[in-house]
């Protein structure tokens, strides 16, 4: 059975977000990624597998090593999806801030 991974479930996990941040700064092997966490290496490998299945990470075989890279195109797709919601909430908070300032000035 081939389960389709949801990218938003993948990035909801704090460990996976940390892995993305690490790999965004520098492409790394699974061992190098795992060395940044106190959890067991198989656990980190499972997180890497999920990120790869969601296409947030890509892998490149380099001899015996597999190097993981951030997939900027997939990250852009996520950012593009979230942007309208960010704008909406920015507008709502700005409106609330204006209301609160007016309320404060009336005191």
Core attributes:
alpha+beta, Arc Repressor Mutant, subunit A, 13% strand, ArsR-like_HTH, DNA-binding transcription factor activity
Structure description:
There is one protein chain. The protein is of the alpha+beta class. It has one domain (7-105): Arc Repressor Mutant, subunit A (Orthogonal Bundle). 65% of the residues lie in helices and 13% in strands. It contains five helices and three strands; from the N terminus they run ααβααββα. It has helices at 7-12, 14-25, 30-34, 41-53, 72-105; strands at residues 28-29, 57-62, 65-70. Helix 2 (14-25) packs across helix 4 (41-53). The chain is elongated, with a radius of gyration of 20 Å. It starts with 6 loop residues before the first helix and ends with a helix.
Order of helices and strands: HHEHHEEH
Class from secondary-structure proportions:
alpha+beta
Q: State the domain count.
A: 1
CATH class: Mainly Alpha
Question: What share of residues is helical?
Answer: 55-70%
CATH 2nd-level architecture = Orthogonal Bundle
Compute the separation of the termini in Å. Answer: 64 Å
- E-strand count: 3
Shape: elongated
Largest sheet: 3 strands, antiparallel
Q: What value does the average pLDDT take?
A: 92
- Side by side, the strands of the main sheet go 1-3-2
Strand content: 5-15%
- Rg from alpha-carbon coordinates: 20 Å
CATH superfamily: Winged helix-like DNA-binding domain superfamily/Winged helix DNA-binding domain
CATH structural fold name: Arc Repressor Mutant, subunit A
Model regions low in confidence, pLDDT < 50 over at least 5 residues: none
Structure annotation, total helices: 5
């Amino acid at each position: 059975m081939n389960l389709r991974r949801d990218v938003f479930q993948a990035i909801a996990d704090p460990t996976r977000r940390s892995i993305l941040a690490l790999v965004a700064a520098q492409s790394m092997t699974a061992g190098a990624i795992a060395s940044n966490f106190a959890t067991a290496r198989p656990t980190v490998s499972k997180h890497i597998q999920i990120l790869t299945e969601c296409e947030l990470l890509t892998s490149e075989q380099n001899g015996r090593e597999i190097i993981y890279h951030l997939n900027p195109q997939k990250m852009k797709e996520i950012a593009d999806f979230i942007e309208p919601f960010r704008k909406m909430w920015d507008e709502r908070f700005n409106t609330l801030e204006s209301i609160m300032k007016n309320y404060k000035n009336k005191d």
